[in-house]
Amino acid sequence: MHVLFAFGVLLCAAQAQEFNYDQHGADWEGLCATGSSQSPISIRRPTRVSDVYQPLIVANADSVEYTVSEEVDTYRLTAPQPASTLTAVLIGESAPTTFTLNNIHFHSTSEHRVRGQVFDLEMHMVHYGPNGARAVLGVFYYISYSRSPLLDSIMQGGALNIAAELGSTINDFYFYSGSLTTPPCTEPVNWFLPRFGSEVGLSATQDQIDWVAGQWDQNQGYARNNRQTQPLNGRTVYEFIAPDSTSYLNSSS
């Protein structure tokens, strides 16, 4: 078995609808065309959060099992339940919410843009919370000479040490309220996009990016499975940046 974050019931609904990336989502119908809080977005002028805040907490994520489902539009790893968790304090709330990983899947090139930057790969870790709440942890990868241990584990079919790749505490991240990036483009979805030190993304090698993309593009044509960015429509994008990586740690509930 293998492991990951997943969409669960929502994914089943999304997979029931046939769609393609010929126009990168411009021809999708329903909420995809009419929704006011759609994803992905281009992050340009986020609102910096300067108050003390609780970082994202990743737990039970050092040996995640998963099953692989063959899809024409992405490479998807679905985690058996119970799986690893993501805990966050959402905007406007005082108590933390814990979400459980359902699946992990990939988009190349990245769907989100950060200050104009397009990344070579975007990994979506999809979680479910209480009362149908949804949260996606979106991780960017850029091509470098340093390999990603997590992508290596996926390539080899082994259990995933997500905590080793992302850390058990994520202090720096972007947050906004959006949607699923595939039909039916359900709203709302809590989006968390981590920053890693001075970098927004993590490094991976060319062969790792090629391998992941090749799982849904068997002809090696490197078809891009990314939806075009969507208008903000007045939404606020928050940027949580800890000036001191130890002073903002808060495990209280």
Name the features.
253 residues, alpha+beta, Carbonic Anhydrase II, 5 helices, 15 strands, disordered C terminus
Textual characterization of the structure:
This protein has 253 residues and is an alpha+beta fold. The chain has one domain: Roll (Carbonic Anhydrase II), CATH 3.10.200. The protein contains five helices and 15 strands. The strands form two sheets. Strands 2, 3, 4, 5, 6, 7, 9, 10, 11, 12, 13, 14 and 15 form a 13-stranded mixed sheet that branches. The protein has a two-stranded parallel ribbon with strand order 1-8. β4 (67-70) and β5 form a beta hairpin. The protein starts with 8 loop residues before the first helix and ends in a 13-residue tail after the last strand. 41% of the residues are buried. Mean pLDDT is 87; it is low at 1-16 and 245-253.
Rg over CA atoms, rounded to whole Å, is 17 Å
Query: How helical, in percent, are the residues?
Result: 10-25%
> What is the string of SSEs from the N terminus onward?
HHEEEEEEEEEEHHEEEEHE
What's the count of strands?
15
- What would CATH call the class? Alpha Beta
Proportion of beta-strand residues? 25-35%
Question: Layout of SSEs?
Answer:
Blueprint: H1 9-15, H2 31-34, E1 42-43, E2 47-49, E3 56-59, E4 67-70, E5 75-78, E6 85-88, E7 97-107, E8 113-114, E9 121-128, E10 134-143, H3 149-156, H4 162-166, E11 169-170, E12 173-178, E13 189-194, E14 202-204, H5 206-214, E15 238-240
Parallel strand pairs: 1-8, 2-15, 10-13, 10-14
Antiparallel strand pairs: 3-6, 3-11, 4-5, 5-7, 6-7, 7-9, 9-10, 12-13, 12-15
